[in-house]
Amino acid sequence: MKPKVTMIAWNQNDNYVVTAVNNHLLKVWNSCTGQLLHDLVGHADEVFVLETHPFDSRIMLSAGHDGNIFIWDITKGTKTKHYFNMIEGQGHGAVFDCKFSPDGQHFACTDSHGHLLIFGFGCSRPYEKIPDQMFFHTDYRPLIRDSNNYVLDEQTQQAPHLMPPPFLVDVDGNPHPTKYQRLVPGRENCADEHLIPQLGYVATSDGEVVEQVIGQQTVDQDEQGLEPSILDGMIRQLQLQQDQRTGADQESASSGLQNGEGTPRRG
């Protein structure tokens, strides 16, 4: 097999270059002379993650499709720490990306099963308030394009960036309690009644009908038959004004061209 380089990274002070090769070896080179200094052995599959420590020039992190995460001392060519990403009942999870924190005390990884792995020093208590499964209810929603070729959410017919903050749900689309909903930017100071999502039934691609979050609605509003949300009404009004402005601009542009004025300029 002809060796191929899959990833390359300089260390923190640029004295060394580390290359990942598709024969599962990591090679440490002197960046000035090009001399091969060390072969780092440990991975059993291709490596596509090489991350240098933010301030310690000796430290390099590697991770690959074999589920292994290594911390290396590249000056000595030795293994400092090792973690194998074994998932119970599913085998190992390939590691797709890793990043160090700015202070160098933590690093986070994502794997092929959708997990976020956080490593570091100290207590893990700050992370215990986070649910095991976190998705926005708008994740994987289909998008469409309108007559102006703008992207819209298919269900609400609104531009995604103008929609209200999404709800946090688990992998099955079930909403999390209100204390977790306040973790979403834009919902920090909402009253409890505004953190109760409206549930509906949605057909999946397999034809199965499942209950999912489809919007925001309070009990009082539901009984009174009012708008599902004041914010939704404001968003619709803004969208309507934007569409009217866009139509006016297009009319003025076309009339300008018909009168021989050339390309119209926009303020």
TrEMBL record:
Protein name (Swiss-Prot/TrEMBL): BRWD1 protein
GO cellular component terms, semicolon-separated: nucleus
Keywords, in A-Z order: Repeat, WD repeat
SUPFAM superfamilies xrefs: WD40 repeat-like
Signal peptide residues on this chain, from the entry's feature table: none
Compositionally biased spans, kind Polar residues: 240-261
PANTHER family reported in the protein's UniProt record: BROMODOMAIN AND WD REPEAT-CONTAINING PROTEIN 1 (PTHR16266:SF26), WD REPEAT DOMAIN 9 (PTHR16266)
Ranges: WD repeats: 1-39, 40-82
